[in-house]
Amino acid sequence: MFGVSVSANRIAEALTWLGGGERRELGERHERSTHVIAGIVVLLGTALAWLVATLAITEATNVSIAVIVPFTLVFGLLVGALALGRLAEAQHATHRVR
């Protein structure tokens, strides 16, 4: 039971970070859950961009998928970094308004 809790906590911390928050500065549970959901959206967007790029290049060329996957992973990570940057920018603008 304790091992599952620690594992779930680490996943939640990683998703919170991907969602633009830091675990230590989020005092309320609904704030943490908002950042976890945003982190899931960033992670799914990254994975979807990687999948679409891989499928598109695989269909457009005759190159082996083993060669294509590392290059499209870079593209997927770039999309994820851009999404994370936009999320941070939007959160910064929201905090400025308050």
Summarize the structure.
The chain is mainly α and 98 residues long. Helix content is 84%, strand content 0%.
Verbal overview:
- By secondary structure, the chain is mostly helical.
- It has one domain.
- The protein has 3 helices and no strands.
- Helix 1 crosses helix 2 and helix 2 packs antiparallel against helix 3.
- The longest helix is centred in the C-terminal third of the chain and has 33 residues.
- The model has no long low-confidence stretch (mean pLDDT 81).
List keywords for this structure.
single chain; 98 residues; mainly alpha; 3 helices; 0% strand
Shape: elongated
Give the total of domains: 1
Specify the biggest β-sheet.
Answer: none
Termini separation comes to 41 Å
Structural class: mainly alpha
Q: How much β-strand is present in the residues?
A: under 5%
- Counted by DSSP, the helix tally is 3
Average residue-wise pLDDT: 81
- Secondary structure tally: strands: 0
Percentage of helical residues? over 70%
SSE order in H/E notation? HHH
Strand-helix topology:
Layout: H1 2-18, H2 29-60, H3 65-97
Helix pairs in contact: 1-2, 2-3
